[in-house]
Amino acid sequence: MKIPPFSLAKQLDELSQELDSAVLRVLKSGQYIGGEEIDRFEKFFAAATGVPFSVGCNSGTDALVLALRALDIGKGDEVITSSFSFFATAEAISAVGAKPVFVDVHPDSYLIDLNLLEKAITPSTRAILPVHLFGFPVDMERLLQVAKKHGLKVIEDCAQAAGSFWKGRSVGSWGDIGCFSFFPTKNLGGAGDGGAVTTKDPHIAQRIRELAVHGMPRRYLHTQLGYNSRLDALQAAVLNVKLPRLKGWVNKRQLIAKRYEEMLKGIPSLSLPSSLDPEDGCHGWNQYVVRIQNISPKEDTQESQANLKKEISDFDSCYLPRDLLKKKLEEDGVNTIIYYPIPIHLQPAYKSLGHEKGKLPVTETLCKEVLSLPVFPELTIEEQEKVVHSVKKLLPECF
User: Fold this and answer.
1) What pLDDT, in 10s, does the model give residues 224-266?
2) pLDDT band at residue 294 under the 50/70/90 scheme
3) 61-78 pLDDT tens trace
4) Nearest to 113, CA basis, from 369, 367, 365, 360
5) Strand bridging mode 270-271 / 195-199
6) Average pLDDT of every residue of the chain
7) Is 67 helix (H, G, I), strand (E, B) or coil?
8) How far, in Å, are 7, 67, 230, 259, 262 from residue 387 at the CA level?
C-alpha cells in the first residue's frame, strides 16, 4: 500500500461530471476573463467568509501583495509576521518595499507568539500579518487588541486556512484584509494557481480590484501601477463546484486529526499538534504536523549516514531523527512532507537582514523536528492505520 501525503484522485472521481460540465460551459461561453463565473465565486466566497467583499486574484502570494499595496505599505515601513511559514508570507512584504520583522512562534500552536508581539513594534511598524498556519486560527481577538492599541493594520494570511474559524467567525473576516490561496493542495483548491482577497471595506475592495488589473478603474485609464493578477473564469468554475463542499471536507479532516491523536498519543519522542477547543474555533487541518524529538541518533553504518546526508536539506545540514524517519517511512510506502525545513529568517534571500541562528529559537527548533503526515478528506481508516503502524514501527530505529 502506497500512501501519498495528499491526493485529489478520489475527489476528482466524485466531482468529475460537475467539473467537466463547469469547465465546458466556460469554454463554450468564450468568456475566459471575468464574467459570470467570477462574479458568482466572489459573491459566494465573500458570503462563506462572512464579509461583504471578495476579489479573486492570481494566487495567494498576489493576494498578500495586493493587500499590502491597498493599505499603502511600502518603503520604510515594517510589517510584523512569522518566520515559520511559507516563504511567500515575507516575500510579499519585501515585494512592496517594506521590511518583514519576524516574531517567534508558540511551541504548541506553531502560530505567532502573541506574548512577543508588542516587543517587536517600532515607530516604523505599519501592520501585523498573522499566519493561520496549517489551518490553526490565530487568536484574532487578542491580536486585534494589540493592533488597535498601536494603530496598526491587520492582514490575515489565510492561505492554509479556508474553512477555519475563530470564535464563530471565519478567518479572513477579522482583520482589515484576508488573503487566501487556492493552490490545488489547499482545503479549497483549484486546478492551478488562484487566490482571493476578502475585506469589509468597500474602498479597499475597489483598490484591490483596480490593482489586480493594471491599476485600471476603467478600460485604458491607469491611475496607479498595478499587476496582471486576475482569477480566470476556468479556475472560478472549478472553485464554484468545490466551495459548497468545503465544510464537509473540513469535517472529514477533523475526524482524521482526531483519529491520529487517539492512535499516536503516548509514543516516546513524538509530539502531536495542538487541537482546538470547539468553543474557540474550528481547526481546518490543512496539515497534520507532528514533531520528532531532536536528539542524537544511534550509530548507523557510515555508508547509510553518508547517503542520508545527501538527501537532507536542513538548514544546519545535520543528521536528524526526523529526516531518518521520513526516509524510512517512504521506503515503507508512507510519503510525508516537511513544512518547513528552513525558517524564513535564515533563508539566503534574507541574508541582508543579518539574522543569526538562535534569534528565533522555537521556530528554528520546529524546522528540525516537524513532519507532516498524510491528511486529505478521502484518506481511509485503513490507510491511516498503515501510517500509524509505520510510525510506531520505524520511529524507535531513528535514535
Assistant:
1) 999 999 999 999 999 999 999 999 999 999 999 999 999 999 9
2) confident
3) 999 999 999 999 999 999
4) 360
5) unpaired
6) 94
7) helix
8) 15, 39, 40, 11, 13
pLDDT at 96 over 60: yes
Question: 299 with 349: CB under 8 angstroms?
Answer: no
What's the confidence (pLDDT) of residue 312? 43
- Provide the phi-psi class of 124: left if phi over 0, else alpha when psi is between -120 and 50, else beta: alpha
pLDDT band for position 128 (cuts 50, 70, 90): very high
pLDDT higher than threshold 60 for residue 364 = yes
Taking residues 273-280, report their average pLDDT.
Answer: 94
HEC per residue, 298-325: CCCCHHHHHHHHHHCCCCCCCCCHHHHH
Q: How many residues does the chain have?
A: 399
Mean pLDDT of 372-391: 98
CA distance 90 to 72: 17
Q: Could you give the strand order of the β-sheet that contains 370-373, starting from the edge strand earlier in sequence? A: 270-271, 288-292, 370-373
Contact (Cβ atoms closer than 8 angstroms) between residue 233 and residue 26:
yes
Residues 112, 256: Cα–Cα separation, whole Å: 25
How many CB atoms neighbour CB 50 within 10 A? Answer: 17
For residue 306, with 0-12 CB atoms within 10 Å meaning exposed, 13-18 middle and 19 or more buried, which class applies? exposed
Q: Mention every residue, 6+ apart, whose C-beta is less than 8 A from residue 352.
A: none
- Please provide the DSSP assignment of 213-239 as one string: BTT-SBTTB-SS---B-PPBHHHHHHH
Q: What gap in Å lies between CA 281 and CA 136, rounded to an integer?
A: 9
Contact 56, 38 (CB under 8 A): yes
Would you state the pLDDT for residue 1? 85
What pairs with residue 234 in β-bridges? none
Q: Annotate 246-267 with DSSP letters as a single string.
A: HHHHHHHHHHHHHHHHHHHTT-
**Residue 91 CB coordination number (10 Å):** 17
- Which residue, chain included where needed, has cell 465565486? 41
- If pLDDT is split at 50, 70 and 90, which confidence band does 316 have? low
Output the furthest CA–CA distance in the chain (Å, rounded): 68
Provide the pLDDT for residue 315. 53
- Residue 73 has a CB neighbour count (10 Å cut-off) of 21
CA angle 84, 251, 368 (to 5 degrees): 25
